[in-house]
Amino acid sequence: MSILLLGSPGVGCRALVKRFVQGAFVEERSEDISTRALHEVRHGNHEVRMAILTHSTFPIHLKKRKPLIREANIIMLVFSVLDKNSFSTGLPLFINEAKDALAK
């Protein structure tokens, strides 16, 4: 299963992944363009393997982000409760970007 987290710069996508996978909270910002973490969970008698990805949401990285959107089984949009623009501007942007990537 492939999960892609997208959010405006600074909302903490990478911190969420690290918290989920390693149980650690990271306060400092990462300047990495993308992050990939592998994680396994048990659901009943089934083992579920997940590839959890984040990718820079800066427009310059859009071309590299489109294949990740097409390949993801789940796309999570991440917002900051402290930054209204991360929702009001980010949501329409990411929805249109996903529609565009999936249409091709």
Task: Describe, in short, the structure shown.
This protein is an alpha/beta fold and 104 residues long. The chain has helices spanning 13-22, 62-71, 84-88, 90-103, and strands spanning 2-7, 34-43, 46-55, 74-78.
Description:
A four-stranded mixed sheet has the order 2-3-1-4, with helices on both faces. The radius of gyration is 14 Å and the shape is globular. The longest helix has 14 residues, at 90-103. The chain has helices at 13-22, 62-71, 84-88, 90-103; strands at residues 2-7, 34-43, 46-55, 74-78. It is of the alpha/beta class and 104 residues long.
Widest sheet, order of strands: 2-3-1-4
Mean pLDDT: 84
Number of alpha- plus pi-helical segments: 4
Shape: globular
Structural category: alpha/beta
* Oligomerization: single chain
Number of β-strand runs: 4
- Rounded to the nearest angstrom, the radius of gyration is 14 Å
Strand content: 25-35%
End-to-end CA span: 21 Å
What are the secondary-structure elements, in order, as H or E?
A: EHEEHEHH
Percent helix range: 25-40%
Largest sheet: 4 strands, mixed
* Low-confidence blocks of residues: none
